[in-house]
Amino acid sequence: MLQDIAPHQFHNEYTPRSPKNDDIVMTFHHNQPLFYMAHETPALPTFAQMKNLIPTTCEKLIYLFEIDQIGFFMVPTVKAMEEDDNISFKNNQVTDFSFGSMREFRHFKPVWMGFAGVSAGQLYRWYRSNRFCGVCGHPMELHDTERAMHCPVCGYVDYPKICPAIIVGIIDPATDRIMLTKYANRTFTRYALIAGFTEFGETLEDTVHREVMEEVGLKVKNIRYYKNQPWAFSESLLVGFFAELDGDSSITLDTNELAVGEWKKREEIPDDEENSLSLTYTMMKAFKDGEV
Ligand SMILES: [Zn+2]
Question: What is the pTM of this model?
């Protein structure tokens, strides 16, 4: 899965330090990451590349995390960069650099760099939405010792939010089939499993029962934990379960959420290499291969 980057090691401790030449400098504009495009495939810009272009901004970078000894840093805001260094990367104005889509990290090479990119994206969105105190409205400041923003006036502290969500593979033991779905009105058009965010006051099992009933109108029992995955694209921690159909197998599709809901035999599950880093596909493949 995307987070399985061994032998590389992810260090999420907040230990700010000065950037080195081979560290990575992430820049985002409206959630689009800046890529270095001089080679065949997009790469993340290094500090050595960026400090020539934005020397003033490079003195104010925000430390994010390390993978092995490679540090990942973030330009505070594109606007500050444009004002301090009088440069804009928008509309491909700087040769070899361009803003691209977060989705590129789903099939980025190397994979560990893709994991870093999407994780940096989550922190970027959190820093962007916590520039002002939610309690008193004063500008927030970086905390000295924690990955947190704090308000110097009222003392409010904000930490990155992680949203739990479930994925559930519903298995009908009578026919040895699994429920596959396709989302309605989304750019992601491949097969998926029932999934949804945990709501206020719910346990994960409550979420499984509610989402299954809402999306396909079915009851489930024998809910069993399988695996989990941090999924920074949506600030979530995805928790995967398998569950057995309880009773009637006829589907009542929530057409606002789903375009397709179908029972599939093991051999009918399509290969989907492009989606292979996701927990969803890991679960579909586990059923296909007879592991569950
Ligand atoms: Zn405040």
Answer: 0.93
